[in-house]
Amino acid sequence: MSGGDLPRAARPFVEFSTLLRENAFMVAPEQTEMFIAAVGLLGPRQMGDIHKAGLATLAPPPERREDFDALFRLHFLGQSIAAGEKAEDDEELQAFDEREGEMEPPEADEINEAGEQATGSEVLTLRQFADLAENEALRRFRKQAASRLPRRLTQRRAPAKSGDRWNMRKLMRDAVKRDGEVMRLPQMARKTRQRRILLLIDVSGSMKQQTETHMRFAHALAAVSDHVEIFTLGTRLTRVTRALRLRRQEQALASAATLVADWDGGTRLGDALAAFLSVPRFAGFSRGALVIVLSDGLERGDPERLVEAVRALSRRAWKLAWLTPLAADSGYVPQTAAISAIAPILDRLGNGSGTAAICEEILTIARAA
């Protein structure tokens, strides 16, 4: 929604979120919505109420609380702030929730020759996907996935041939029909449901050759999974679940192409995963889920930041699998500092070199569980 489409009363709060992002605060669109909703619920009588709503919903980091307060005074009270208080890191990674997919993609400032070497610089560009028929591996995956994707027990119970509790309701009905005579003891067992899958796709320049394959796989996974969340990682974090839920593949990929701005750009996996974990709603997607990362792990940011983020993700996930195209060789041994450091944390470091390999890896993880 552009600034001109906003209700006049909401405009100052949206503009405040924009000001925070310009000063390297990570503020997701949904946090802005919560900020506006909180102000509406409070019916603020004084500026302090708005300030408290901002602290509760925009969640500035404790070490940057003074910066937040200064920007709040600047925006809402018109007070100036001292020079030099703007964050030094102008390339703080941003998180993007999905929008309607109708915005115009940014134009690249320069031709991107990505695809051979990882870089940490951000390059915004447009990606177009070819209109190709679905390959055989994806067709087999669609047929097998419904019964072979991982499942978990729920608290609900249903009649079963064998279980851990008697079905007392059916037992009493049978007894009434047969004048109190019980011929067998019907049982109940806990029902199962498909486990949530969280798919994180590296769309940086070093993964350029695999990006289209991974996006087509993501669309197939979204079609067969009951609970799936899909994000792209690069120099930005972008949620593309809704776009890839569209039934027609070419329509879904075209919609996702307009949402993601950092196709074939730099690689800052640690920052992207940290941004994912910093948004409570996003982090909740990983709790108890099968988390799959499709990436070569050629990190150009701080490797220690990537290790911390992967460790935090591992604690929340049911299983954490990292599938890299570099593992196509059966004798693959991690060479980079980042992959070597996170390998002991992962449940699976497997082959992500193609559609067939990824499908087999995921169905194998589910079968082994």
Which features does this protein show?
globular; 14 helices; 369 residues
Protein topology:
Blueprint: H1 11-22, H2 29-42, H3 47-58, H4 65-77, E1 95-96, H5 136-148, E2 151-160, E3 165-166, H6 168-177, E4 187-194, E5 197-202, H7 208-224, E6 228-233, E7 237-239, H8 241-244, H9 249-259, H10 269-278, H11 280-285, E8 290-294, H12 303-316, E9 319-324, H13 337-342, E10 348-351, H14 355-368
Parallel strand pairs: 1-7, 5-6, 5-8, 8-9, 9-10
Antiparallel strand pairs: 2-4, 3-4, 6-7
Helix pairs in contact: 1-4, 2-3, 5-7, 5-14, 10-12
Can you characterise this structure?
This protein is an alpha/beta fold. The protein is globular, with a radius of gyration of 24 Å. Strand 5 (197-202), helix 7 and strand 6 form a beta-alpha-beta unit. Helix content is 42%, strand content 14%. The protein has 14 helices and 10 strands. It has helices at 11-22, 29-42, 47-58, 65-77, 136-148, 168-177, 208-224, 241-244, 249-259, 269-278, 280-285, 303-316, 337-342, 355-368; strands at residues 95-96, 151-160, 165-166, 187-194, 197-202, 228-233, 237-239, 290-294, 319-324, 348-351. The model is unreliable at 81-91 and 99-116 (pLDDT under 50).
